[in-house]
Amino acid sequence: MDSSYSRRRQRGHRCLVSAAMLLGAACFGAACFAAAWPPTLASGSGDAGGDVEWAFYNGGPDGDHYSPLRQIDRGNVARLKPVWVFDLHEQGGLQTNPLIVGRTLFAYTTTQTVIALDAVTGAKKWSFVPARPSRMPARGLSYWSDGKSAILFAGTESYLYALDPASGRPVRGFGDAGCVDLRKGLADPGTDSSKAFLAITTPGIVYKDMIVVGFREPENEPALRGDIRAFDVHTGAVRWVFHTIPHPGEPGYETWMPNSWKTSGAANDWAGMALDARRGILYAPTGSAVNDFYGFDRLGSDLYANSLLALDANTGRLLWHFQGVHHDIWDRDFPSPPALIAVRSHGRRVDAVAQTTKEGYLFVFNRVTGAPLFPIVERPHPGSTVPGEVAWPTQPAPVAPAPYARQFLTANMLTRRTPEAHAFALERFHSFISNGQYQPLRLDRQTVVFPGFDGGAEWGGPGVDPRTGVIYINSNDIAWTGGLVRNGAGGLGQTIYESECSACHGADLRGSPPEFPSLAHIEDRLSETQIAAVIHGGDGRMPSFPDLEGKRQAALLAFLRNPAAALAGNPSGRAAEPAMAPPAGAAKYRFTGYRRFLDPDGYPAVQPPWGTLNAIDLNTGKYLWKIPLGEYPALAAQGIKNTGTENYGGPLVTAGGLVIIGATNFDRTLRAFDSATGRLLWSAKLPYAGNATPATYMIDGRQYVVIAASGARDTHGPQGSAYVAFALPRD
User: Fold this and answer.
1) What is the distance between the alpha carbons of residues 320 and 363, in angstroms, rounded to a whole number?
2) What is the DSSP track for 197-218?
């Protein structure tokens, strides 16, 4: 615990409330307080006419995505109809799993304005505009209550706000005028952390009178340390800290190079956590350390990066850990919160924790001891040929359950959608290295990463049925490629682009749309002012770069205007800029960029399924069913249906025997499946893609299902954002 944190606080303008905080407030005063205050954390099925809330991200602190509601069931789900739509009148991405407490729904807009809606009608009650709006993903909020008072916690980029749920006003006693800047305390003393990037993409988890928070970090240096911290819900003071990159004298320090805790960064919990509240155990999955693809300065296994951590929620003390990737050089973060579930193992009941992965693996452990419920083996893998890199010789893999995504790409698995597409894919494939999981990236050729960098399970996380021990996982199943290239000696703009931008947008500026847009000829689409605004504020998956100012910003903008001239040593088009050698100690090699393996028409270059929904019985490790999830409308019109598509956002599981999921990128559809068989029971079109996890709740005896929808991941489809709620017609 950093006891000096609260003493160092300075009350400043960074957390001051925008004058537009209550724009459009439809309800304020005694009547609103009577309607929504104090909140009650109801429970039960609600079938008798009571109210049932969705007061936690992903349904509960155990991360199960499960609701005991069963008013909507297998027999009547086909009658489900939209009952209200709240149009945000904003473009961008919307990934929020909203909270429903009392009669109020709490959510975000695409610019991280916090909104409160009437959960029955969709009418707006209030909105809170943070001092620094952001287009970073905002997947949910956190709610604390002691039965007498309550606090709504909202993350907007690097700031954690504490809000009054009844009015949207900041709780002034929390941190600095109602918020805490999470960057403080993560850099060396004397370092200006205000120029660093950090974003709260997934909400913190509330335990007793603390909120425990992780965050997103850049994929390359410089990056702050990924410490997991608990804050006092009333004051914002730090209560405990867990160092994900161990300090001297701490266990795991020897798995890094000396002083890595000072020189490296990330190893952060960006995906969210789960909590066994009865035992006081917090489960936190972490991501890779920087640099993601070249670990010359962090040789070793790198604990506690890429690990599932079981922490004492009262103190932050490590109880047990499992590292899913040793010395990660593939960006194989644990991508989602784990799910807590009780199963039968070897004839006895075991309280378990299940962790999904990008690789398509599912790891299941005894949540108290950390013992695996299914055997895990360390498999040998090839070494790296890149100078300075030392890949770890083995990586863990579960013997069961079987992977829910394909593991090895061969020529026989390439697309046969058309002869031309197949010929193109085959030619490209023969230029790649394709040797399965954990093949180190090379300098001379692209390496197949399958499932891809966004493959396997993603941030939406799994759903579980606590009554049956079945887990439901939606998965991406397309191939990507990656490689390394030597950092050149270019001008300042080129150097900045290569170190900060090329990992996502590629050495050729073409990116991998829509997640990684092309920057080629960007001057024809955006003004320099608009480009600078994105650089400083970030957008979607792109972090902000607040330190790119003055000469550095001008040099980068000049490079983007005319990269060909810059690569020739003349970024301005007027006077040549002298070449710069990389700084001393900088990485000699960098990532060539995220590249989907696509055919000439933009479809995946591998055979379907390109996305799946999987049901696995965790009592046995066996699959109950596996089906394609989603389709491309243009292909479906040609009779090529049920291909599956990339999908983001998780499933909702209900006691009514349903798995309800949006997630799919292109068909703008919300679907309900029979949880026992995988049979499609109902579907409805959404205004935009439902790239978010649905929520369900009951008010006045009526069950609702609500999902966030937005157009960011399908740039050829309608653009906008909205929340859409469904219910059964009133008899």
Assistant:
1) 15
2) --B--S--EEETTEEEE--B--
CA distance 538 to 622: 42
Structure tokens given for 331: 């960006």
- In whole angstroms, give the CA distance from residue 87 to residue 435: 47
**Domain 30-407+450-478+608-727 -> CATH class:** mainly beta
For the chain, the structural domain boundaries read 30-407+450-478+608-727, 488-586
DSSP class of residue 577 equals P
Radius of gyration of the CA atoms of the chain, in A: 25
Task: Give backbone dihedrals phi and psi of 241, rounded to 5 degrees, phi first.
Answer: -135, 135
| CA angle (241 as vertex; 236, 242 as ends), nearest 5 | 150
CB atoms within 10 A of CB 678: 16
8 Å CB contact between 671 and 660 = yes
Do 57 and 455 form a contact (C-beta atoms < 8 A)?
no
Would you give the distance in Å from CA 617 to the centre of its chain?
Answer: 25
* Per-residue pLDDT, 536: 63
- Which residue type does 711 have? G
User: Following CA atoms 452, 455, 459, 461 in sequence, which dihedral angle do they give, to the nearest 10 degrees?
Assistant: -160
Tokens of 424: 């193109």
What is the CA 580 to chain-centroid distance, rounded?
36
Could you check whether 30-407+450-478+608-727 and 488-586 share the same CATH topology? no
Tell me how far apart the alpha carbons of residues 504 and 490 are, in angstroms, rounded to a whole number.
Answer: 19
Q: What is the pLDDT of residue 27?
A: 34
Both tokens assigned to 8:
């160092």
Q: What is the DSSP string of 265-332?
A: -B----S--EEETTTTEEEEE--PBSSSS--TTS-S--TTTTEEEEEETTT--EEEEEESSSS--S--
Q: What's the confidence (pLDDT) of residue 392?
A: 98
For helices 528-537 and 550-561, give the axis angle rounded to 10 degrees. Answer: 120
Q: How far apart are CA 616 and CA 465, in angstroms?
A: 11
Question: Which tens digit of pLDDT belongs to each residue from 353-384?
Answer: 999 999 999 999 999 999 999 999 999 999 99
CA–CA gap between residue 443 and residue 644 (Å, rounded): 33
Task: Report the residue count for the chain.
Answer: 731
Residues of the chain with pLDDT under 50: 1-46, 48, 569-576
Report whether 16 contacts 181 (CB < 8 A).
no
pLDDT digits (tens, 9 = 90+) for 299-314: 999 999 999 999 999 9
CATH number of this structure's domain 488-586: 1.10.760.10
Q: Which of 137, 179, 175, 136 is nearest to 154 (CA)?
A: 179
Helix and strand element counts for the chain (H, E):
10, 39
Is 395 within 8 Å of 377 (Cβ atoms)? no
The closest of 708, 675, 730, 731 to 70, measured between CA atoms, is 675
Q: Read off the amino acid at residue 441.
A: L
User: What does the alpha-carbon distance between residue 112 and residue 137 come to, in Å, rounded to a whole number?
Assistant: 8
Which of 401, 356, 353 lies closest to 650 in space, CA to CA? 356
What pLDDT is attached to residue 32? 31
Q: Cβ of 431: how many Cβ atoms within 10 Å?
A: 9
Q: What is the pLDDT at residue 583?
A: 62
Alpha-carbon distance of 209 to 536, in angstroms, equals 34
